[in-house]
Amino acid sequence: MSVTSQVYEAYSVINGNQQDGEATTIYNPSNLSEQVAVYHEVSSSAVEEAVQAAKRAQREWAALSGLQKGATLENMATKLEENKDEIATLASSEMGKPIKEMKGEVARGVQLLRYYAAEGSRSNGNVIPAANPQVHQYSKRVPLGVVGVITPWNFPVAIPIWKIAPALICGNAIVWKPAKQAAVTASKLMDVFQDVLPSGLINMLIGSGSKVGNTLLEEGNIDALSFTGSTETGMHAAATCASRNIKYQTEMGGKNVAVVLDDADLDQTVSAILSGSFTSAGQKCTASSRIVADKKIMPTLKEKLKTAVADLRVGEALDEQAFLGPVSSKDQYEKINEYISLAKKEANVVAETKTIVSDYEGHYIRPLIVDGMDANHTLAQEEVFGPFAVLLEAEDFDEAIEIANNTDYGLSASIFTNDLSRSHQFLERSEAGMVRVNLETAGVEYQAPFGGMKMSSSHTREQGQAALEFYSETKTCAIRHSF
């Protein structure tokens, strides 16, 4: 199956103008012999130009009414929807996410833009009682200024938009550095939005994290930073921003758990585990990478997982029937296979997909579930970020919660049970920012707060109304009237 028929040229954009630079060829992870695109990488010197363009644009943008800003976001949503198939195909070709998933992600981008567009017509502050009856006192949200946005490759449309949309509606301008593995999709989004955006409002820089990313962090005259990526990089970003007194939010790693109790509906449970663990080839921070099961139900659960995982369809990104595609890159492929090699030496295979359905060489990895290690083993503690999960046994409900919380991370957690009392106990006792009952660990809706506890987050929240708190500051105003 040929994934793409033309080579796309991807450029950084500053003040509405494309920026030339050193060219890098991108090959299709579904078919390593097929060239998808060429992106042009800027140097760190582009950061200052982008920030200055953003500052100029921000002054005019912030002066618009909320309704005017909302109308622009609504136009962005329309443009994205008009180009949804082309964007989804290009993104799937660039980073290997199955086309069905990618179409859903683009649709979510449309929803996010429309959701935040509507914020332009909602209340922006509160009237506050004052001791003096001649004083009128109120609060309002005001823009931060220029926001740096650093995004990963695994959700190349949704994550940038769920940062950019609330930042814009709050009156900010953007300097956006996408991951290089998603640079092509980022460039296409900029192409689509250019007709409806004021020049300089969003400036997008294709470049390395060590050069462009660090320059933005360490030298860029920005007022805030929103980052999604690895814990190591996120901690560096947080420390750098804190040292410069720049407002920041970081969304980082996860080692998410699916707890299965002895009264769970196992057919429903297995379906949710497969989706949570293996869609996007497990390359998402909310993936179910640990499965903790009550010992009474473990034998039956193992058999059901073995049967279900064996028949998963691993195929090319544009294969409409594929449950998962290849992983995104050679680096990802090699890193995940190191964990798989360790698992096959030190653990027992519970379930593994039988075949890969493709005529081409690609970065394909067969989904794998293993057991036979304790909850402190490397495989049960480190984020693999691939189609891999460990199965751990618990004596009872209390031990299941103890194992579930036995991680440095705290992003998402699920429990599968028909017991209402134990469901509520889990929701209260789980050390995770997002907790769910009879639902997979992934899939939080765009209108709900997204974020984690412990080492998964800097303790702010994205999406929903919570995002507005990050992308604005509160100003308290008071005026004394003479009457």
Automatic annotation (TrEMBL):
<keyword id="KW-0560">Oxidoreductase</keyword>
<dbReference type="InterPro" id="IPR015590">
    <property type="entry name" value="Aldehyde_DH_dom"/>
</dbReference>
<dbReference type="GO" id="GO:0016620">
    <property type="term" value="F:oxidoreductase activity, acting on the aldehyde or oxo group of donors, NAD or NADP as acceptor"/>
</dbReference>
<dbReference type="InterPro" id="IPR016162">
    <property type="entry name" value="Ald_DH_N"/>
</dbReference>
<dbReference type="InterPro" id="IPR016160">
    <property type="entry name" value="Ald_DH_CS_CYS"/>
</dbReference>
<dbReference type="InterPro" id="IPR016163">
    <property type="entry name" value="Ald_DH_C"/>
</dbReference>
<dbReference type="Pfam" id="PF00171">
    <property type="entry name" value="Aldedh"/>
</dbReference>
<dbReference type="InterPro" id="IPR016161">
    <property type="entry name" value="Ald_DH/histidinol_DH"/>
</dbReference>
<comment type="similarity">
    <text>Belongs to the aldehyde dehydrogenase family.</text>
</comment>
<feature type="domain" description="Aldehyde dehydrogenase">
    <location>
        <begin position="21"/>
        <end position="476"/>
    </location>
</feature>
<protein>
    <submittedName>
        <fullName>Aldehyde dehydrogenase family protein</fullName>
    </submittedName>
</protein>
